[in-house]
Amino acid sequence: QVQLVESGGGLVQQGGSLRLSCVASGSIFSINTMAWYRQAPGKQRELVAGINYGGSANYADSVKGRFTISRDNAKNKMYLQMNSLKPEDTAVYYCNAEVETFFMDSKPYWGQGTQVTVSS
Q1: What share of the chain is helix, strand, coil (3-state, %, to 5)?
Q2: Is 60 exposed, middle or buried (0-12, 13-18, 19+ CB in 10 A)?
Q3: What pLDDT, in 10s, does the model give residues 92-106?
């Protein structure tokens, strides 16, 4: 099995910064795409940023220029550096990864989420 664990969430003032981390563990053969999603109360889960194995990234328009996604393939880790945070960024942030295991099954896995709260 595969597990994803997020960390780094917390309470921050608007304009501040946070760095989220995600680590994958288990029967991992390879990880293709990794991504950060977020979900605010009463809203649908949305894609924040995604990154492929080679480091090519894409971002939601709402976070472009403020957030940076990165990954460390050797450590099966992914990061989201969040700067110039706004109250609208408040949400539970989830780590997602497309994982191929040693049992040759490839599917997306999700972490439990980490809360990010930005005060005005």
Answers
A1: 5, 60, 35
A2: middle
A3: 999 999 999 888 889
